[in-house]
Design brief:
single chain; 235 residues; mainly alpha; 8 helices
Amino acid sequence: MALPKITREGYFKATVIFLLFLLLSFDRDMAMIYILIMVGDFIWWRFDRNITFPIEKTTTNRLSAVLEAGIATALFFLFSSMAVKVFAVEALPAGVNINSILELYAASTPILQGNVFLTIVGWGFLIPVIETIFFNGTLLEGLTVFAEKQFGTRVSLQKFSIPLFLVILFVATLFTLFHLTAKNLSSIPLLITFIFSIISSVLVIRNQEIKQAIMLHMTVNTLAVLSSLGLLSFI
């Protein structure tokens, strides 16, 4: 039996219930941040007709979506490794590898207190869904419309262009600033976060849905959590 299509309505209902359930295990300040993000996301999506990106357009492309997310994950590690080699050679004297990138990316984990399972579920699955849908979905689309109205320049979401790339860079900057203020990351993890957001937005524009970017986010975050818990020492 095929799983039903994932919709925004279903996302809001399921996620807010689960997030409230996890509230006692979360760092409470962090939990409130994500609840507020969800509330703002819901209001923006509900009352702005320009927010049209679905989480999933169709259920028939799930295998190809998984493969694309896997390729995007590999590209993320490649570009991040290149960036770290350029900007943080002295910080990693043993060399740059996947595990070192994950350790940098996991600088603010775990966020759940004393429970490995809830840490993996919360940081590896719940947080990626909330962040991706808001930043690389609602915010990306909303800022594209805003840029059109303010500057009178057509910014198509159907194909890549210089104006659209500038919007993608701005979204990546906001995503990075969010991690700076909410999670107090240092410079190199912030650089990796910036690269990650760009790749996520490219996936959304390419597929006109958010599913592949969510899969990317879940994969990287889950690996980062496992790394922070010492469960990927073999890499």
